[in-house]
Write the structure tokens for this entry.
Amino acid sequence: MTEYLRYLPDLLLGIGGTTTLLLGAWREDKAGRDFVRWLTLVFLALAGAAAFYAALFPQGVSWIVWTPLAKAFSLVFISVGIWVVLCEPPPPLRAGEWYALLQFAIIGMLVLARSSNLAALFLGIETLSLALYVLVAFRYATRTAIRGGALYLVLASFASAFLGFGLALIYTAYGTLDVTRIMQIQESPTMLTFLGHVGVGLFLVGAGFKLAAVPFHMWAPDVYEAAPSVVSGIIASASKGATLAALLPLVFLFTSHTTTLYVITVITVIAGNLLGLLEQRPKRILAYSSIAHVGYLLVGYLALVSARGESTQTSHIQEAIFFYVVGYTLAALGAFAVLGQLEDGRTLYLRDLRGLLKRHPLAAWLLMVFVVSLAGIPPTVGFLSKFYLFLEAVKAGHVGLVLWALGGSAIGVFYYTRILAQLFMSATEGVEVKVQRDRLRDVVLTATACLTILWGMTPHFVFALL
Amino acid sequence: MTLLAVIFYIAAAVAILATGAVLFARNAVNAVLYLLVSLFGVALMMYSLGGAFVAILEIIVYAGAIVVLFLFVIMMLNIARIEQHKDLQPPTRPQLLVPVILALVLMADLGIAIYAAAAGVSSGKTITVTAIGETLYRQHYLGVELASLVLLIGLIGALHLGSAAWFTHQKEANQDGTC
């Protein structure tokens, strides 16, 4: 029986999801919506506690493994869930479905963070993306929402097809989908067959779509713009973080594909930053910024690949990647949430941000902190995490790559400055952007901004999670 | 080449041809029929590899339920528009020629399979229902559960996006002037 306790967080979230779904359908008034909101929070908190202790239970043969890193990532993803519930007031309709899908998406992330089997990875990605398709198009009364949801659905299914076919070929080559067994076979002198190589390549394409790395990034700006802002935040940060967490144990698959990874990383870093320069809409700028950040994370991943399983170095790089994911998640979630406050159901342009500092100082200051962190300027967590990651990459011998990444971030600073500059400009006549205030959201966002700065100076709190 | 390998390769060829035809079929109903042929081919492939149960599932679940559902959806969605659309006309005789040939080849293949079974040729390892059940529900139960979760999410999504609730909500909000 203790065998099943390892799945306790997932089970709790599954129970929570179905409960909120049913209760939400039962009462749709204000009290009912608030009730499912707090119920979701309770279940997420329970799942967090369970994730903290579930790692203690015996491991056994299964699809998931509670490594310390997996535990830390799980806690981060559950915290993202709690953050979203606190930050976003319940939708006026179908609150039960909103919270149920949120919890199901987090189950997908948890499975990804702990997967030790490629089939679990595939199913985790499916669970996560399927929930996200619906969340993107949740307020489907507008044309953009439907377009964004449909775009995400089509392209992510396309990616899943690549991923699935890649996994099938990997299975043909190795005869197993279990990660440890594939690693053992890989280490034995038998060469990876041609089919295995093709499989890994297709797998890379599928994962690239999920991460929105550059040749596969086209969907990102449109989807981020169409989705409700918190959902854009989740797709940009936690969803990518989960995919990357699932890829971390798989470095050995890519040892003979470093050139491909190198090219993808360089063009992701450069193109992500260059494309952002031309944008006039802040949510799209943040989308390109998230593409660039995936590029920086891939720098870390490439360092991990070239560490070749050397244990101290591997764990250092993994810690740096984890820290980067945490830092980026804080800043991206926060920035998207602030933009969501201003959005008010229409497309937001950069010029709408003008004079925000005078009109709504809190929102402007918060946005400033988050954007500064995204740009990687001290004293924020964005700077320190980038510093750690690039330091580890240099130690692993990727000086050239780090130079590319630094060049990319230098370009990036330019468009982040464009956002910041708007805040200080005087407001355009006749453009009055309403800010939807919510006291709890203000508190949560302020706390997030404080953490962004605090963890930028005291990173050991984050590393204590590991 | 053993008899089972012959069965396998014929079925595989039919499946590949039929799947290719799905991509290039101009007529939606025709495409679904090709898909049906392809699934039968895959089922025979499974059978020749010793997976009789999987073959049956392939026919019952995919061919029997899902593809027939496709057919129903295609036929029912656009009843009013079928008259105008060339693509949705019922297939003509020349269009049916290729699927019929493919189906005949498959039938011949099935004949060989029956002959092989009668002659006592088997692949040596037959995967029993018990073995499948053991693997699925003892070792890989997480996969079963996750797959059911994916289906549940799909169901919620379809129901949510299919309802008109947000449109009416939007209209009311616009009338109130609050939105």
Observations:
- The first helix of chain A runs from residue 8 to 26.
- The interface with chain B takes residues 7, 14, 18, 21, 61-64, 92-94, 97, 100-101, 104, 107, 111, 119-120, 123-124, 126-127, 130-131, 133-134, 137-142, 149, 345 of chain A (CB under 8 Å).
- DSSP finds 19 helices and no strands in chain A.
- The radius of gyration of chain A is 21 Å.
